[in-house]
TrEMBL record:
Protein name (database record): Thiamine phosphate synthase
Pathway(s) of this molecule: Cofactor biosynthesis; thiamine diphosphate biosynthesis
Thiamine phosphate synthase/TenI domain segment(s): 1-188
InterPro entries: Aldolase_TIM (IPR013785), ThiamineP_synth_sf (IPR036206), ThiamineP_synth_TenI (IPR022998)
Length: 209
């Protein structure tokens, strides 16, 4: 499971507590996605998260969203990029750190096909892609969900790890388990009154099929 951060969904205290609880309950990845923050504030937040995890004797793989500066300056697990930003960086000759992971946001099978060609021509390794949005979600209220079909169709086009994103709930996660490798959540954990129980509900339904 990937947890995507959004500090606007809850109090500062609950924000940190949710990340720590997720780590304690075997959520493997945190995508630190606070795009509105200036670098200095993002840096402070990252260090606060790392310190809180250490104080609670737990850990999670931190993937920074979009901030190349944080990616370069700290021992993060990897970077997650919008597809167009990734292509822009490549066009400028940016050299990615091969010791860190790369994840990308994709939204169509045509992008999956294009990415395959980029990987081959640039000899670059992409560790996972998120495909979204699968179900209806408040984050994309005016956009029609792309549905499970996007996962099904993409599954046959790539060997890259596919992470489903968008409206993934404990009650529908079983619908996607046969067509992706993992899934990402945000509001369901940051708004949960019992993070451990919510994670257990996800895992129970994910493992049904």
């Amino acid at each position: 499971m990937y947890l995507i951060s959004n500090r606007n969904l809850c109090s500062k205290e609950k924000y940190i507590k949710t990340i720590v609880e997720a780590a304690k309950n075997n959520v493997e990845y945190l995508i630190l996605r606070e795009k509105d923050l200036e670098y200095s504030d993002l840096e402070k937040l990252y260090n606060k998260i790392v310190l809180s995890l250490k104080e609670n004797n737990t850990d999670i793989n931190v993937i920074v969203n979009s901030s190349v500066e944080l990616y370069e300056n700290y021992p993060v697990y990897g970077i997650h990029l919008p597809y167009n930003l990734f292509k822009d960086l490549l066009s400028k000759g940016y050299e990615f750190d091969r010791t860190k992971k790369i994840g990308l946001s994709l939204h169509s099978t045509s992008e999956v096909i294009e990415l395959n060609k980029i990987i081959e021509s640039k000899n670059i390794n992409i560790d996972y892609i998120t495909l979204s949005h699968i179900f209806e979600t408040k984050c994309k209220e005016r956009l029609k969900p792309r549905g499970v079909e996007l996962l099904k169709n993409s599954r046959g086009l790539t060997d890259i790890k596919i992470v489903a994103l968008g409206g993934i709930l404990p009650q529908n996660v079983g619908e996607i388990s046969g067509y992706c490798d993992d899934f990402a959540v945000m509001s369901t954990l940051f708004k949960s009154s019992d993070v451990k129980e919510t994670i257990e509900d996800y895992n129970k339904n994910w493992n049904k099929l």
